[in-house]
Amino acid sequence: MKNGKIFLILIGIIVLVVIAFAVIDFGKKDVGDSNSEITPGEEITEEQERQTIISLYYMNSETNTLMPEARIIDVKNLIENPYKSLTEYLIESPKTENLRSVIPTNTKVNGATNTLGVVTLDLSKDFIENQNAENISQGISAIVNTLTELNDVNSVKFLIDGEENKKIEGTDISFDKDFVREII
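The structure assignment produced for this chain is given below.
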């Protein structure tokens, strides 16, 4: 019986030693993993830090509805006057193949200011000349939808070469009100 007890004690000691070595070995692997070399992700360049995504609204040639086009631009282009800059981007041709601008390319942005959430946008007469009512209306919607993407813009008031309340001859379009975003 003494031999049996001694045998069991020896087996118990051997089991404890094996468990102790396993715990120590596992601990070493854990420490080794935490000390392993960490490879950093791709570094962001100064230029990338200045970029933001904007939405410009253009007409879809297939569905004849306004659709946003996401564009990555340098934030420094928006610092001086974001409302004027966004409208000028909108006048340019879209990058997406099936989209088209609804603002005549010769339209100039004379000025843009924001007062209490209302952007007053002064455009050249090229915006309305030689345009039918549908094209003018689409241009208004494209501008309003683009500018109201900004948190500080609720509506847009249009001036044509500095003139307020301009009524477009031969149409029911009048700039005597502020234009708000339409749900599309």
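Interim note for the steering committee: DSSP finds five helices and seven strands in the chain. The longest strand covers residues 51-60.
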